[in-house]
Amino acid sequence: MKSHTRVLVIGGGVVGCSVLYHLTKLGWSDVMLIERSDLTSGSTWHAAGGFHTLNGDTNMAALQGYTIRLYKELEAITGMSCGLHHVGGITLADTPERFDMLKAERAKHRYMGLDTEILSPAEVATFTDGLVNTDGILGALYDPLDGHLDPSGTTHAYARAARMGGAEIVLHNRVLETNPRPDGSWEVVTEKGTIIAEHLVNAAGLWAREVAAMAGVYLPLLPMAHQYLVTDDIPEIMSILAEGREFPHVMDPGGESYLRQEGRGLCIGFYEKPCEAWSVDGTPWGFGHELLNEAFDKIEDSVAFAYRRFPVLERAGVKRVIHGPFTFAPDGNPLIGPVPGLRNYWSACAVMAGFSQGGGMGLALAQWMIEGEVERDPRGFDVARFGTWTTPGYTVPKVIENYQTRFSVAYPNEEKPAARPFRTTPMYDIFAGMRAVFGQQYGLEVVNYHALPGEPLYETPSFKRSNAWEAVAQECRAVRDAVGINEIQNFGKFRVRGAGARAWLDRIMAGRIPAPGKLSLTPMLSPQGKIIGDFTVTCLSETEFQITGSYGAQDQHRRWFEANLDAGVTVENVSDRLTGFQIAGPKARELLDRVTRADVSAAAFRFMEAKRMVVGMADCLVQRVSYTGDLGFEIYCDAMVQRQLWTTLWEAGQDLGLRPFGMRAMMSLRLDKFFGSWGREFSPDYLPGETGIARFIRWDKEFIGKAPALAERQVGPGRKLCAFVVEAVDADVVAYEPIWVDGEVRGFCTSGGYAHGSGVSVALGFLPTEMAVDGLAVEIEILGERRPARLVTAPLWDADGARMRG
């Protein structure tokens, strides 16, 4: 065993071996993997081995597609068999809502290049040789890429391919300590000696929590006990085999089960509601190739349902029961990437669908490590999406909830209730008393809207317009006609200080850094020119700035700031210390004027300016800017005085028609002006020119990502972000719906919704640049139906910005 290595991967499951292989594939040969037992020990060896592409996150779906296509490449490289069975997969829909979800997924696949199709109940019966009882089935989604493989053979193929690329693998060698060194490398103490590693990857699976704790960090994941059954030989399956065919995968979300062929019988697994969290307080080091005791009681209802859906099972004997643990993060997605707060420490954990996602996650981590960023937007699986606020007390109920709802319909407006409320602002009880319906962002309770009298205090999950429609409409009208007030806790906020603060911001931000008392809007780019941040920069003085961005991305942004920090510059995350309100609407200035002695007239306080002033009794930073597109102000204060600030504004605004509004209204109002949103129009998937955010770039300075951004500018973007007015009926664009032009899919939507201020349905999305002309007639596919739409270039409201800037 060597004593020094460039990368040390801890964990010999499918994910660890995939990371090791992809590091060698991308050119790093001085890499090493250590495993406490044998390869596949932990979750890998007892996995059911199924793989599929279906995922609500398009980037995850694409990486799952990469994983599946990779297996033949592995077989060709190594000469080993992965035991591939590309049998195709069918996902059943037994309710209109589930069928809507499948139609929405099929629409996404149109521009992703995935060859899926919607099946009728009769086609389901044909595809499954009549072994599926289609009573109550409305339709299904068929994916020809779905299948299953040999978990052990596949993992060993990854390992052999990695060894062929120069990697070293050491088995039966448990990690005892991981100690950071001053130069950013890691001292890893193992049973067989000490290794110095430039980079350390935690791919320890069931033991990832324990390995992370050695480095002083908590990773929010939990093993869940999962059970599947393998039947004896079934005559109907034997007949299919005799014809040279195989039975397809069948996922029955209504029955919480998945079914596939196993030899001459069937394998069926369950995501049952009475599930079981395993080793909540830590995984024993001695656990490995054991299985858990059979627990038929927890799957009794699921089995009864499966017998009705698949009658052939009732006549089949059970050959064996596999009951073992595998790990979940709170939202079910992997935890991949550089761990914030640690140098050169990487997470490759919680990949619960290892044979659907392991290849893509290995590729993503290797790209991140070697090239500095990932080819695809990693936000859905970035370990930094969970901040230091997570605890085991939060993780356990959220993981249980995710397991229980793994096969549930995933609605675009759904707010899951487990472990809530957890993080709240000083305004939580006041807003709750005003009938607030809350959402959750980065663990924080955020007002989505205020329910009207007589309406329920929750939003009905739906792919169509929900019961929040009228409440949101009234909040939008209050902003446009009078004045609205909204909490601004849910912005990510950082204070940048030091003599070199301006120079550092000039380098890390692509846009103009403002003069004292001024604001600017600026993108932040990666070295490859991708958009990794969308910020407001406020110059408080020549040595102090405030930068405001996405609350949910604050740990991702903090990690980037710290990795690129200059000497003599400090960056402090004040997201939860600095709070306040935004007020917006034609009477916003009059309201502010009533509660401060400062001059807030249009002449004295201009658009994109910032001033310190006392509002009521609170010392505040007030910014003249508004995401609603209306006349507006952002008022920041210390969290300790937020309630007093609220009282001041609320009492002063009663005769002005002051009304609270939530995130649903704000996201509707921005559509009137075609304002982009972080994570939708602006994300690491896109370059600045194609999104239009390049208009904020300052080209006469040097900044990270300038060369590729300039290259895009010189050549011209191949596609352009456009706005559309849609002839929608009862459902609006959410994201990723295909855009049809002359019978062909030529683009996709990034976001949309109903713009209550203008009274129309709006979509934002990409089309080829040469097609992006005003008035272009297109069709946008919403829930399987193509709706007429037209491209518009002038904002629908306050087109010249006179009110917003006046």
Q: What are the main properties of this structure?
A:
single chain; 806 residues; alpha+beta; D-Amino Acid Oxidase, Chain A, domain 2; Alpha-Beta Plaits; nine-stranded mixed sheet; eight-stranded mixed sheet; 26% helix; 29% strand
Outline the structure in words.
With 806 residues, the protein is an alpha+beta fold. Among the domains are: 325 residues, D-Amino Acid Oxidase, subunit A, domain 2 (D-Amino Acid Oxidase, Chain A, domain 2), CATH 3.30.9; 114 residues, Alpha-Beta Plaits (2-Layer Sandwich), CATH 3.30.70.1400. The strands form seven sheets. Strands 4, 5, 6, 12, 13, 14, 15, 16 and 17 form a nine-stranded mixed sheet that branches. Strands 1, 2, 8, 9, 10, 11, 18 and 19 form an eight-stranded mixed sheet that branches. A six-stranded mixed sheet has the order 29-30-31-28-22-32. A hairpin with a 2-residue loop joins strand 14 and strand 15. Helix 2 crosses helix 5. The longest helix is centred in the first third of the chain and has 21 residues. It is globular, with a radius of gyration of 27 Å. The chain starts with a strand and ends with a helix. The model has no long low-confidence stretch (mean pLDDT 96). Keywords: Membrane, Oxidoreductase, Transmembrane, Transmembrane helix. GO terms for molecular function: dimethylglycine dehydrogenase activity. It comes from Frigidibacter albus.
